[in-house]
Amino acid sequence: METNLLKGKNGIIFGALDESSIAWKIALACHRAGARFTLSNAPIALRMGGIQDLAKICETEVISADATSSSDLEDLAKRSVSFLGAKIDFVLHSIGMSPNVRKKKDYRTLNTDWYLKTLDISALSFYKIIQTLDRLDLLNEWASILGISYVAAQRTFPLYADMAEAKAVLESIARSYGYHLGKAKKIRVNTLSQSPTPTRAGTGIPGFQPLFEYTEKIAPLGNATAEECALYCVFLFSDMSRKVTMQNLYHDGGFSSTGLSLDVLDKS
Ligand SMILES: NC(=O)c1ccc[n+]([C@@H]2O[C@H](COP(=O)([O-])OP(=O)(O)OC[C@H]3O[C@@H](n4cnc5c(N)ncnc54)[C@H](O)[C@@H]3O)[C@@H](O)[C@H]2O)c1
Q: What is the mean pLDDT of the segment spanning 31-38?
């Protein structure tokens, strides 16, 4: 469906782990739309996932970086620009991990050291990535920077644990950095709030399957898939969305604006 909307654009895509990853689908869509980019993930993820297969399809390189490490990010930023031969036009942050969710900790008994880790990996990394590219002056004017969020930033989902706060911070970073980079360099920063999606991180949330079925019934258009998310990202990275910045953009089939659906009522 994509045209050459991203022809001539160069980017960095974080977070493709395996074929189910949202970032994997976004990378494929960006490639089809004519973009060039590097792929990055944490060193441990490079050992487990099939990201090299994705790199082959997208004719690119994988550069390892722990997104919580400023020195890794500086190395990645410099190597990306050197590989691409150009400054960066778009960045995808599709990174999330909570040790508390992994250990299925109840919200009232969260391990607070792990809580800080959740915030560092899932939210502060967004700030560090943007800060690194900004400090090194490696972003082009009108670059588009995007993080993937979830509606638990606004509403409580009892089993989402400390990821809810991580998403609230992520969205706030987009607003704050969006202001500063908009003024300084005409660069936009947004978050996209995606439907529940069956990925490694998604299905790791306790109660994922019933939640997925519930939101499918609430959203008038049904849950948005990772492929559909990828198409929206192509638009957001393109020049078609130049004046969209500092926004949290729901991509959830209408879930976030629906109070009650007839499908759920019929069930009771
Ligand atoms: N799956 C869903 O239901 C859903 C819904 C809304 C938002 N999201 C968000 O989408 C994004 C992508 O998640 P996904 O669902 O595709 O799952 P995923 O497991 O495929 O992707 C998560 C990625 O984060 C990476 N990561 C973890 N720690 C890292 C670190 N220290 N440095 C660099 N990378 C690291 C993982 O290696 C992995 O590639 C996350 O921000 C997630 O919270 C997911």
A: 98
pLDDT digits (tens, 9 = 90+) for 11-34: 999 999 999 999 999 999 999 999
DSSP, collapsed to helix, strand or coil, labels residue 100 as helix
Q: Given ligand 1 and candidates 40, 119, 132, 148, which is best to mutate, with the most ligand atoms within 8 Å of its CB?
A: 148
Q: Which of 21, 54, 249 to mutate to test the pocket of ligand 1 (most atoms within 8 A of CB)?
A: 21
Kindly report, residue by residue over 162-202, the tens digit of the pLDDT: 999 999 999 999 999 999 999 999 999 999 999 999 999 89
Percent of the chain predicted with pLDDT > 90: 94
The contacts of residue 184 (CB under 8 Å, 6+ apart) are none
Rounded to a whole number, what is the distance in angstroms from the first to the last CA of the chain? 39
Q: Which of 207, 118, 157, 170 is nearest to 110 (CA)?
A: 118
pLDDT at 268: 52
Query: Between 43 and 3, where is the model more confident?
Result: 43
What is the signed CA dihedral for 51, 56, 59, 64, rounded to 10 degrees?
30
CA distances from 7 to 2, 30, 234 (A): 11, 9, 11
Measured from the Cα of 22, ligand 1's closest atom is: 16
Q: Which domains does the chain have, with CATH numbers?
A: 10-267 (3.40.50.720)
Reported as a single tens digit per residue, the pLDDT across 76-98 is 999 999 999 999 999 999 999 99
Mean of the pLDDT values across residues 24-50? Answer: 95
Q: Which residues contact 205 (CB under 8 A, 6 or more apart)?
A: 101, 159, 160, 163, 211
